[in-house]
Each structure stands twice: as structure tokens, then as C-alpha cells.
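Subject: mismatched residue count in predicted assembly?

I count 225 residues in my input, but I want to confirm that the predicted structure covers every chain. Input:
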Amino acid sequence: QQQVKQSPQSLIVQKGGISIINCAYENTAFDYFPWYQQFPGKGPALLIAIRPDVSEKKEGRFTISFNKSAKQFSLHIMDSQPGDSATYFCAASLSGSRLTFGEGTQLTVNP
Amino acid sequence: DVKVTQSSRYLVKRTGEKVFLECVQDMDHENMFWYRQDPGLGLRLIYFSYDVKMKEKGDIPEGYSVSREKKERFSLILESASTNQTSMYLCASILQGVGNQPQHFGDGTRLSIL
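Triage response: the counts match. Full output below for your records.
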């Protein structure tokens, strides 16, 4: 059973635009929500993460918005750059160890 | 910097073969994980281990087994490889019991079963 649903599966954005990727989860006991970024030929790497006691976390051009009542969270990439082109995975975990991943979003930022 | 090393980047095997995928981490992490990555399905957990000689089934353990004889090494075994096990396999490790730490991933092994 897929406990974290991610959309869209692919996304094409123009340079300078905003990229938005959405995730929804089922298990209300999840207490840690990271986003991972994966470039071709590389393993995923942690990009940014949030805990459910805050509604938003920002690191540079990357922002997580978290809606606990709706059981949804999203990644916003402001001023998207071609170097942001990668596959992005949302995930959720209970107590920070075992992660349940979404299906992934392949982001392409056109120059 | 944490380094997770997977022994092969690409591997081609035949149906019915016994296949070993090796993973080594250099940061003394207790927890190690094996995932498979397929387009549109994300990363799915096959097995994980909290300590030497300990293993737990993940979401898709059928057709796989694991071995952890040393803390730094976690092996994934395909007992009798089948074509539906053609996939990208990713190993990860994490430090246990220190709050929310990132999982550190290797660069993957792309396995083709013919």
C-alpha cells in the first residue's frame, strides 16, 4: 500500500519560474517529512526537511509548505534554474529512520 | 563526509542465477537499507538492518534476502534472479538515535536480468 502519493510525475518549467511538487500522506503518526533530490547517475540526497509542528520551512530558493489537517505537503522551487533539473522524491517517516517515499517527480527546467 | 559505496554500477545476469549486490559505508552507521527504484514507483524498501546479523523485511522482500556480517557491509542477494528484478538498486545508511538524520545513499547498481 502506497502511503505517500506524489504529483505530478513530470514537470517542465521555464528558467526563472516556480516549480511546485505536491505530496499527500495517510499515516498521521508520521513525524518527519524530507525531500530528496536525485541527479542522473547519482543516489538521492537530502534537500530539505520539515517536522509537522511548523507550517513552512525555507532554505534559499527551496520551501516546504506543510498542511497537517489536509495531510499534504509541497515543495516550491523559486526562480527555477536549469541546474535544478533532477528527480525529486518526497518521503515520510516515523521517528526518522525508515522512510516511505513518493513516486518521484522528474523536473526539467528549460533555459 | 559519509560515503556509501556500491560495488557495481552496472550488472548483467541471467535468469536463475544467484546475484550478490554489495554495499559498504564508512561512517559506522547502525542502520542500512536496500531499495529498488523503478520509474513511476519511486523507491521501495526491500530489506533493512538495525545492527550486525539483524534484518527486517521492508515492503517488497519477496525473492530477496540480505546479509550483514559486519557493521559496515550490507549485502542484497537475489536467490534465483528473474526478469522482473531488472531494476536500479540503491543502498543507504543512517546514524541511529540522533534525531532526524538524512539517509546517505550510494549511486546505485543498475541490474539487468536477461
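Chain B has no helices and eleven strands. Marking this ticket as 'not a bug'.
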